[in-house]
Amino acid sequence: MGAFELSADEAIRILKDDVEAFLSDNRAFFANQGKKLNSYFEMACYNHIVNYYKKQDYLVQVENLISKQFRYKLSTSGYPENFSFFRVIKNTTQVESVEFEIHHNLCIQSGVDRTIFLTPDIAVVNASSIVHDSEHYLCGFKKKFCYAKNEDVQTFCEVKQYNPFPELLYSFMGLYSELYPHNSNEAETDKVPKHIAPSLIISGKGNLHTDKIKMSLESRGDLNILFDVFQQGKFIFNISVSSQMKQVYARNYSTRTPLILDSANVPSDEKDELPF
Amino acid sequence: MIELFAKNLPREILFQLTSEFNNKMKETRYLLGKYNYSQLTVDKDLNLIEFLLALSIFYRRVVANIDAAAGFSKNVFNISSAEAIKIGGYNLTIKEKDRMTAMVYKFHAILSNNRVPKRILEYEDGHQFLRAVSEYKRKIENIN
Description:
CATH topology of chain A: Restriction Endonuclease
Strand content of chain A: 15-25%
Radius of gyration of chain B: 18 Å
Number of domains of chain B: 1
Strand order of the largest sheet of chain B: 1-2
CATH architecture of chain A: 3-Layer(aba) Sandwich
Helix content of chain A: 25-40%
Distance between the termini of chain A: 35 Å
Number of helices of chain A: 7
Distance between the termini of chain B: 26 Å
Largest interface: A-B, 59 and 56 residues
Helix content of chain B: over 70%
Strand content of chain B: 5-15%
Largest sheet of chain A: 8 strands, mixed
Radius of gyration of chain A: 22 Å
Number of strands of chain B: 2
Order of helices and strands of chain B: HHHEEHH
Structural class of chain B: mainly alpha
Structural class of chain A: alpha+beta
Oligomer: heterodimer
């Protein structure tokens, strides 16, 4: 019987049956995936940041694969050398290139008090800039402390899988003022690479009040507060519409000899397609 | 109704889904009592509204997240020789990524085949959700 011969009640019943069958067919899969669901939104945002650089003609490389595995840093604990990250490289002129690293859960030194360290979800730092400090902890303690110096931090993002609410937005301002106490958008040349300004990325949609707070906070510094990234992420981070987002000039970065692009390393068009 | 979607998920997620569903149902009942959504009445359509609300929460909390993980892994597999992504004790392999993609595709195919508009999943507030449900009901009644 075709759908056009069904009553509305029948059509709704078929929808319910289809969904129930889908849930039943995939029940083991959902049971298996359930515990990891909360990590996946952070992964999506990590992916958006990487794609942002890809769209700005950076060559993106995955670094530090371990046993052919990309080790995703789930929490703040663990040494960075035991986890994988992304390196982005771009030839800025014919004689120089720039290189940055995109890390997840990397500890960052405060820009206000050098003895304080915070861990935003995603950080973009100068290449090979992670400090391994074996004297950070008390004497006799073998554990070392790994972090990026504040001056090596280009930008950072904090990811929250919530609907926005006032206290959440204001708590980001504490992180922002500690990790990014300077405004870097002074007159620079076009040759200086840009990054997404420090951003709070929130999955849920705002309401009238949180939209007002967002506008107010964004007017106070080089920062973005991005709502509805669940649904709109691929549009928000697309370079063609990045006017929605503030960008900041890179600082304290060093240049290197230009990268000779090996055609085998350049992703094909098919590979370059956004995954969402 | 949300139990139908959440019964195979871990307790923590079940709790999140149930809590969100109960809160949204409270708001929905309030809106239905206060405003007129041409095609909808509490008595007649509560079951449909509950089902679609549970479906939308399941999409946002589960399907969209799995889609995101598939997207991330696709990116990593495309630009490196990685064969898996290790997330804590779990290995997200190429095969698993393909399974995730297929699952998401199937979910969207069910909605598309049953003419459920994306607005039912992507509403900003309860008011928009009820308008989308009302429109959906009108559409299937007119078609059929």
